[in-house]
Design brief:
The protein contains nine helices and ten strands. The protein is α/β, with parallel strands linked by helices. An eight-stranded mixed β-sheet has the order 3-2-1-4-5-6-7-8, sandwiched between helices. Strands 9-10 form a two-stranded parallel ribbon. The protein starts with 14 loop residues before the first helix and ends with a helix.
Length: about 300
């Protein structure tokens, strides 16, 4: 097996630790879901290092741009909004951080009938990235590479992608399984985007930020909260600060160890070790399941996603 990529950073490193001494002047970045939580901290840290950062958010009034930052509206569950955002982007793009995500407490679907977590967490980001492909290619031509960071989760270990019922039209709806499916999809996107776009200088990696208390949990049901508490009690994860949670995203965004390489899944600032699909989360809280990195599954998901989001 190829040696896993390692960095000097750890679970306790912060985004500012990763960016210490890094000059991002001239880098143009987009961070989705940057009005709060990990997204806001990722955007702040990148801008502090000199990047020009666009905070792509559903509610612009909730975002607080700092120096070298601007706010733009983006609703990932709205195809027209994604299309408009990509159309209005002008010039090269060097870094796309697909950070935004939602958790639902019960069944929810878009106007197209797409399950809302899959639609927002995966399909919206898929459409955004493909819509910005030309800008990313120009960014790569400028600087030798462009990077995409796809924010996944340890939740991916709960479920792969069910191609027979992506939108829970036949099976009983389980919000945790729906979320897990979307997070597996985030990792698979990084695999196939890199395969398709590496020749253009575009590389995508998936990251698990770890356990961070953010607005993502506001819609949790009692059962979801109990499950999270049980996982914490079992030592499956320990809560990080927002600053620590953003660190792995920033590692994927700027660390030289991940220059011109993609299709990896990062955990605690390192490339995670692969585990079989039947591995238990409790035994491998820092692993990545095979179904989240499988090239054939990644290619199939890309084809399905392209068909669904095609205008």
């Amino acid at each position: 097996m190829t040696a896993l990529i390692t960095t000097p950073f750890t679970a306790t490193s912060t985004a500012d630790d990763v960016l210490a001494g890094v000059d991002l002047a001239g880098v143009r970045a987009i961070v989705t879901g940057a009005s709060s939580g990990i997204g806001a901290e990722t955007a702040r840290a990148l801008a502090a290092a000199g990047a020009e950062v666009t905070l792509a958010v559903r509610n612009p009034a909730a975002a607080v741009p700092g120096p070298r930052s601007r706010v733009a509206r983006l609703d990932l569950a709205d195809r027209a909004s994604v299309r408009r955002f990509a159309r209005d982007w002008d010039g090269p793009l060097h870094l796309l951080v697909n950070n935004a995500g939602i958790v639902t407490g019960g069944p929810a679907h878009t106007a197209e009938g797409w399950e809302l977590q899959f639609a927002t967490n995966h399909l919206g980001h898929f459409a955004l990235a493909t819509g910005l492909h030309a800008a990313l290619a120009r960014g790569a031509a400028d600087r030798g590479e462009a990077r995409i960071v796809s924010v996944s989760s340890t939740a991916h270990m709960r479920a792969g992608v069910d191609f027979t019922d992506l939108h829970f039209t036949r099976r009983a709806y389980d919000p945790q399984i729906a979320y897990a499916q979307s997070k597996t999809a985030n990792s698979l996107f990084a695999v196939e985007a890199t395969r398709r776009w590496a020749a253009d200088g575009i590389f995508a990696n998936a990251v698990n930020p770890g356990g961070v208390a953010t607005g993502l949990q506001r819609n949790f049901t009692a059962a979801q909260k109990e499950s999270l508490a049980a996982a914490e009690a079992a030592g499956i994860f320990a809560y990080k600060t927002v600053e620590q949670g953003a660190a792995t995203s920033v590692v994927a965004a700027v660390a030289p160890q991940f220059a011109r390489t993609g299709g990896h899944y990062l955990d605690d600032a390192q490339e995670a070790y692969p585990v079989p699909d039947d591995a238990e989360l409790a035994d491998h809280p820092h692993g990545v399941k095979a179904w989240a990195l499988d090239p054939a599954t990644a290619e199939r998901l890309w084809t399905v996603s392209a068909d669904l989001t095609r205008d």
